[in-house]
């Protein structure tokens, strides 16, 4: 009982403390000519950070739905950053997979899990983080089961509607030479 | 102060910033520092309660199943970040309950949680009613964000190029989480990436999938490395790296820091990526030197060579990928590291993971292997239906070492085909393959060990797996997975028995967020170290899962599953079977 009590206390404290600004990061992508991207480059947009790997089957099931969401909601300011956590061993599989599936979202590479650890200390995949236009964490999701995309889409629409698009010049950092195309 | 204490202090410091107190910032930036620094915090809790059933009897008490016990494992992580810094700590804890029995009036332990060498401040002889407990501050990390990079102190992961010289990363799917504990400076300035690191390896102490018995300290080998990559060279990038390893002989908390000296392995290499002529090229080449005979033994003077290359072309609706590798005396560091579950000088395996067996896993980590794989994917229905075919050929020259069942070189041929089909309401992933490991001089055609395979001059394997997700009536959903394998051992002095095995599961989401899962395993593999609950070779289990939100999962499991080799992300590990009951709660906040 003591352990359960301690665990329940931690849980309560965690709920009370969760949230805040999404940590910024800089990662290279599968397109070398794109240069490094930063999360802060996307300030003013609603961002879904989706951590996946080519060996993670549930991740790949979810990605088809993420592509559909970006296609539908992109004009309203929604962006998917599909962060590949494939390590050095499976890195060569990432770009061929994305290209043959026809996915158009940006795919940053996190081969040493440095960004994954910042967002998901448990390091379990799939894992996604919804970030609002101001750069704050709206929600986190671990695992994927068919149908989860319905609730996720509702959250994204809610985040898109909760605030008007922020003026880029007011919230974004100075444009970098390698800033991604909108 | 211990590392753990320092980490908790840093977390507390960051947490205090959320209440209005900004963390310290350089004076030069003070005018730009907001009065209230946004702080993000992430917490995870993974609690597992397992009741282990063991079909064991004490010779003096054969009528009582005294070896049944309860194991509780908790992994708690906390992470906090501001714009300028972040801190992370992971605490693992395990307790064994009902781990005592009384025999002839004497109170005895069923099994020891810790070895005597493992540091633990509390008395080893806990009272009879109290659990045996161990807790460990497993990971601690503090990162200072610099204008052009990060400075990390504590635990971190690292990989250079394609991993032939250094690839330390978590692999929680197979219960492996080894990090480097030390210092890492990663700078990114324009087209340049520079990484410098030094530290010692830190293997996780408490297991989530394996039974926690006889826990012992790990060997904290020391490692140092540097990597520089130049991007933007037209369509190319070019990198160079060097890594030095010093292996410790004794399990100690600070072995890597205190046992410094001449490195036992020095690795230097180049890696590059080029997009040209409509093809994505990638390559890495490394030379491995072994300056000492202290731990590596024979042939200290002979250089090792490791190379990997891939070329991917996109022709219409097809994707063609050719990969090749060549290792010559290149994986000797892993031979030392593998017993500690470190395999950190490993490039791409190029092998299909679900067909790797106790024998073919040796080829994955062969010191001396060359080969390649060609894979063609066809987007028959773009984004939805993608069949593929691949063929891999390897020449495995490794004949020594405990990993191998071979005493002569062998040639491996593996053909594989399948499809990945994804629809709005379901998916089908199917793979089938045939693998043949032909030994040199295997003209003598002799029967397999049990005669089941008839003539057997080569290891032969047929395998297949499928994962089908499909909708059911009344808004329910289902997921069916099945993997089947038939394996015939070729004749050799270490002959094993041929076998057939299968693993199956059916998951039904019967209400939103509620899942019922049924499992069934069957195997005749004599190397599998477990016994079925429905029959000697047949295993069955059921599980109920409740996922009320996207970040909370509760599971209850009862039954048994078999032991076996499991691979993920290019690493393989033999995981134990289980019989009993378990409950788990996983939460993210």
Break the fold down into its secondary structure elements and pairings.
The complex is a heterodimer of chains A (182) and B (589).
Chain A: H1 2-17, E1 26-27, E2 37-38, E3 46-52, H2 57-73, E4 78-84, H3 94-101, H4 114-119, E5 127-131, E6 137-142, H5 148-162, H6 168-171
Chain B: H1 3-17, E1 40-52, E2 69-81, E3 85-97, E4 100-103, E5 106-109, E6 132-146, E7 149-156, E8 158-159, E9 167-168, E10 170-171, E11 176-189, E12 192-203, E13 222-233, E14 236-246, H2 255-258, E15 265-276, E16 279-289, E17 304-315, E18 318-328, H3 332-337, H4 360-364, E19 368-378, E20 385-396, E21 410-423, E22 426-439, E23 458-471, E24 477-488, E25 499-511, E26 514-523, E27 538-549, E28 552-561, E29 564-568, E30 571-575, E31 578-588
Antiparallel strand pairs in B: 1-2, 1-31, 2-3, 3-6, 4-5, 6-7, 7-11, 8-9, 10-11, 11-12, 12-13, 13-14, 14-15, 15-16, 16-17, 17-18, 18-19, 19-20, 20-21, 21-22, 22-23, 23-24, 24-25, 25-26, 26-27, 27-28, 28-31, 29-30
What is the terminal separation of chain B in angstroms? 29 Å
SS element count, helices of chain A: 6
In angstroms, what is the radius of gyration of chain B? 26 Å
The pLDDT mean of chain A sits at: 80
**Secondary-structure class of chain B:** mainly beta
Helical fraction of chain A: 25-40%
Q: What's the number of extended β-strand segments of chain B?
A: 31
Q: List segments of chain A where confidence is low: pLDDT < 50 over at least 5 consecutive residues.
A: 1-5, 9-18, 166-182
Main beta-sheet strand count, sense and barrel state of chain B: 24 strands, antiparallel, barrel
Chains forming the largest contact: A-B, 67 and 98 residues
Major sheet: arrangement of strands of chain A: 4-3-5-6
Oligomerization: heterodimer
Description:
- The complex is a heterodimer of chains A (182) and B (589).
- With 182 residues, chain A is α+β, with helices and mostly antiparallel strands.
- Chain A has six helices and six strands.
- Chain A has helices at 2-17, 57-73, 94-101, 114-119, 148-162, 168-171; strands spanning 26-27, 37-38, 46-52, 78-84, 127-131, 137-142.
- The relative contact order of chain A is 0.20.
- Chain B contains four helices and 31 strands.
- In chain B, the strands form four sheets. Chain B has a 24-stranded antiparallel beta barrel. A two-stranded antiparallel ribbon of chain B has the order 4-5.
- Chain B has helices spanning 3-17, 255-258, 332-337, 360-364, and strands at 40-52, 69-81, 85-97, 100-103, 106-109, 132-146, 149-156, 158-159, 167-168, 170-171, 176-189, 192-203, 222-233, 236-246, 265-276, 279-289, 304-315, 318-328, 368-378, 385-396, 410-423, 426-439, 458-471, 477-488, 499-511, 514-523, 538-549, 552-561, 564-568, 571-575, 578-588.
- The longest helix of chain B has 15 residues, at 3-17.
- Chains A and B meet through helix 1, helix 2, helix 3, helix 4 and strand 6 of A and strand 1, strand 2, strand 3, strand 7 and strand 8 of B.
